[in-house]
UniProtKB/TrEMBL annotation:
Keywords for the protein's UniProt record, in alphabetical order: Membrane, Transmembrane, Transmembrane helix
Transmembrane intervals: 6-22, 29-48, 54-73, 80-101, 107-126, 133-154, 174-192
Identification of the protein by name: DUF4203 domain-containing protein
Lineage: superkingdom: Bacteria
Amino acid sequence: MNEMWVGLVALAVGLLVGLAGYRALRVMIALLGAVSGFGIGAGLAQALPLSGGGLTVATWVGALLGAIVFGWLAYAFYQVAVLLGLASIGFAIGSGLMLALGFRGGWLTWLVGALVAGVLVVIGLVGDLPAILLIVLTGLSGANLAITGAMLLTGSITLAQLDTAGSAAMARDWWWALAALVVAAAFVAYQLRSLNRSRAAAMRAQWAARPVTAPR
């Protein structure tokens, strides 16, 4: 039952991020900030010298507090939200890459995710990140969430195996990896087409608003 609900939420958030990640950037970054805070809070809590039930409770408390704090910061402060959104996307890509390479979830996976998050934050600070890069990143992140949700719903992995068996399931059942690539490409193509349409509409509106000068 837990796998079903978590899978549905992951699938819904993945579709939302993948299809509307650029156009609804502020709301999307708030959601991504909450997801990032959830993972970071859980990772920090797992570093505490606890075991058994105490570690489980501390992990959930840390994850929820991280999600609330990061999500609120991302929504309340839009400039901070951009950096938090980039950090959350970088963390998801970095940690997902480590899992795909066969590393079990732990401090090393968390560290690589944090490093990739830091790189994207620096890129965002140094210059204006192009819209295409944002679209690609949200497309990849959305596809990752959507496929993870589908794997949970179909029973390919369980919540207990989420950090350790996802890459193994993709290696065993190659169509999951192929599906992730296809979904990511579809998300990117949809957002690029939507962006081009909105820019074309804005240009037509600007031309229509210009005063017509009568010929002399």
